[in-house]
Amino acid sequence: MENHVNTLWGQFYGWLPTLLSYVGQLVLAIIVLLVGWSIINMITCGMGRMMAASNIEPTLRGFLLSVVGLLLKALLLISVASMVGIATTSFVAVLGAAGLAVGMALQGSLANFAGGVLILLFRPFKVGDSITAAGNTGTVVSIEMFRTVLQDSTNDIVYVPNGTLSNNVVVNSSQSERLLASVGLLIDYNDDIDKARSLLLDLFQNDALVLKTPAPSVSFLPKPANIAVTLGFWCAPGNVTPLVAKYSEASIQALKKEGFRLGVTARTAA
């Protein structure tokens, strides 16, 4: 019996260095985990303050902070696991393969997500802007991570993928302080073009919404059967549509009153 006890004590003393070494590694790993977790939280908080100071969109800010925090914490956990002797090579390989498979399956959605990040980061347009992109024209209602929502002139809601917006030409009419609007008409070759110019320019005399500089203009272009008249004027972006409608009607009435023979009219806004 005594020999058996001595044998157990001998085995225990033999295992003791290994046990102490493992306990030391475990304690060190716990300390690294706690300290690393705190540092990651401080890093994400600091990034959040920097992004807020840079006026980065709250949606993008929250997402980026979440992604950075998750990546850093995943790396920390893998490092701590390797410290206590857990093999992490196969685990990292499995995660990489899974990430590749998910990326291949969601490549379209990832392109839209990347486009949303670029839009929120570089701000080619914002909510309330009037834009033309990918064959769609409307007012930006909201910018989401995967799509941008527009409302067109007929109040239809248009959903445009962000990947399309970030990889195509976008015309933002709201970023300019002024836009050129124009009204098109057709008059007869026998009509007096000087009189037409005078009558049309007189329409703008008392309109505060039409800019005086650059001044309104009237141009003429010969057509096979008529003369095309273009009445151009500058105004604020939000006034283009109502002013085009107003002067399309006013120009027709003014010329008809003086006996001009009008052809088919056309209205445009640039």
From TrEMBL:
* Keyword list, A-Z: Cell inner membrane, Cell membrane, Ion channel, Ion transport, Membrane, Transmembrane, Transmembrane helix, Transport
UniProt main location, coarse: membrane
Give the stretches traversing the membrane. 20-43, 63-87, 93-122
Q: Which domain of life is it from?
A: Bacteria
Membrane topology of this protein: Multi-pass membrane protein
Instruction: Tell me the compartments it is located in.
Output: Cell inner membrane; Cell membrane
Segments forming domain Mechanosensitive ion channel MscS? 109-174
A Pfam family hit: MS_channel_1st_1
Which family is this sequence assigned to?
Answer: Belongs to the MscS (TC 1.A.23) family.
* Biological role stated in the UniProt entry: Mechanosensitive channel that participates in the regulation of osmotic pressure changes within the cell, opening in response to stretch forces in the membrane lipid bilayer, without the need for other proteins. Contributes to normal resistance to hypoosmotic shock. Forms an ion channel of 1.0 nanosiemens conductance with a slight preference for anions.
Q: How does it assemble?
A: Homoheptamer.
Identify this protein by name.
Small-conductance mechanosensitive channel
Query: From which source organism is this entry?
Result: Gluconobacter thailandicus NBRC 3257
Lineage, top ranks: Bacteria, Pseudomonadati, Pseudomonadota, Alphaproteobacteria, Acetobacterales
